[in-house]
Amino acid sequence: MYMDMSDAKGKSRLHQQIDENLRRVYEDLLNEEVPDRFRDLIAQLKARETEREKRS
Hints:
Elements: H1 5-31, H2 36-55
C-alpha cells in the first residue's frame, strides 16, 4: 500500500504522542511510593533470609 508524505507525518506524530504518553506514565510510576503492604512483605522476606543465614 502506498503512503503519501502527509500520512507518514501523521503516523510520525501519532508515534511521537504515544512515546510521550508512555514516558509520562512510566515516570509517574517511578515516582509513586511503594505501598505499605509491599514494604512489609519485603521486610518479612529479609528477616527470613537473615534467619536462614544465621542457621547456616
